[in-house]
Amino acid sequence: MNDDSESSNGNGQERSDGGNWFRRLGKSIAGGPRNRGDILQFLGEASSEGLIEGEALPMIEGVLETADLQARDIMIPRAQMVVLEDDWTLDQVLEAVVESGHSRFPVVGHSRDEITGILLAKDLLRFSRSDAPGFDVGALLRPAVFVPESKRVSIMLQEFRSGRNHMAIVVDEYGGVAGLVTIEDVIEQIVGEIDDEYDEAEGAMILKQDERRFLVQGLTPIEDFNEYFSAGFSDEEFDTVGGLVAHHFGHMPRRGESLRIESFTFNVQRADSRRVHVLQVTLSAAE
Q1: Residue 265: beta bridge partners?
Q2: Do residues 169 and 251 share a domain?
Q3: What pTM value is reported for the model?
Q4: Residue percentage of the chain with pLDDT more than 70
Q5: pLDDT digits (tens, 9 = 90+) for 82-112
Q6: Class of residue 12 by CB neighbours under 10 A (exposed 0-12, middle 13-18, buried 19+)
Q7: Among residues 161, 191, 221, which one ends one of the domains?
Q8: Could you tell me if 94 and 172 lie in one domain?
Q9: 162: left (phi > 0), else alpha (psi -120 to 50), else beta?
Q10: Domain of 135: which CATH number?
Q11: Is residue 237 part of a domain?
Q12: Do 172 and 215 sit in the same domain of this protein?
């Protein structure tokens, strides 16, 4: 018996499924993949053969999908942006920073279309000392980066990395502010949702923020939502809050979109093309 007996049968054919897959891939590459679907098909086969690890395939697909995405597709809309004003006091700025939990904030002048710069929350730490200097928002600002709505997401990621910027202001064709995009928004298109210490506690379906605002997981059963908020939504057609909200939108909502159902205002915090992940629920003030 020769050394090749383990890899060949009596007809000289390879037994290895991996070898068969590589031959098919080689033939395809020799002729050149016809489209992105061909690439994804072979990557899917490679994953099923165990040649690509489980988490790698969705990430590769995410990279390919970014080629079709523009800044307008992933931006936080202008109406949902948390901005600071350049004449605010330290107390006003700190209140907004603590309430939102963000790390970077656009700062506006007299006009909300006039972005004067970006404030980093970490730059406020110096004012916690007793001998801190006088507070002036303008003295702390970093330059703002502006991109058009049509900017390709893949190009934005390259520029975020090379320019060491983590936020860009998206402007429309008239130069007005349309929204903003962060490096986290771009990366999440590739690797999926990124949770940090400000996100919901693991396993918590409903997290209270203050007396009127709550973070609610999209997969929260409507029955549990009703019990928590003493609400009366029907669960005959939909099982989850995310499904109910998407139905009322009439389309799969994007991050930042809001609507009101009865006495609840639902703001989409996280969502993708398949489902709503996290909602901020605000209770209407008593009339």
Answers
A1: 260, 282
A2: no
A3: 0.55
A4: 70
A5: 889 998 999 889 888 877 778 899 999 877 6
A6: exposed
A7: 191
A8: yes
A9: alpha
A10: 3.10.580.10
A11: yes
A12: no
For 43, the domain range is: 17-52
Pairing of strands 258-261, 84-85: unpaired
Domain boundary at 158, 191, 224, which?
Answer: 191
Q: What is the pLDDT of residues 227-244, one digit of tens each?
A: 999 999 998 888 999 999
Q: How many domains does the chain have?
A: 3
**Residue 10 belongs to some domain of the structure:** no
pLDDT tens-digit readout, 178-194: 999 998 888 877 776 65
Let me know if residue 141 belongs to a domain: yes
Gap between the Cα atoms of 146 and 155, Å rounded? 13
- Averaged pLDDT, 28-48: 63
Beta carbons within 10 angstroms of residue 51's beta carbon: 15
Predicted local confidence at residue 62, as pLDDT: 67
Phi-psi region of 32 (alpha: psi -120 to 50; beta: other; left: phi over 0): left
Residue 244 has which token pair? 């109910």
| Residue among 262, 182, 102 at smallest CA distance from 241 | 262
91, 139: one domain: yes
Distant-in-sequence, close-in-space partners of 207: CB < 8 Å, separation ≥ 6 = 200, 201, 214, 215, 216
| Residue 118 φ then ψ, to 5° | -120, 130
CATH number of the domain enclosing 262: 3.30.465.10
Distances in whole angstroms, Cα of residue 101 to Cα of each of 104, 202, 215, 249: 9, 17, 13, 27
Are the C-beta atoms of residues 233 and 222 closer than 8 Å to each other?
Answer: yes
Q: Which pLDDT tens digit goes with each residue over 66-87?
A: 777 889 888 888 877 888 999 8
Q: Which residues have CB under 8 Å from 52's CB, separation 6+?
A: 43, 46, 60
For residues 120 and 156, membership in a common domain is answered with yes
- The residues facing 119 across adjacent strands are 105
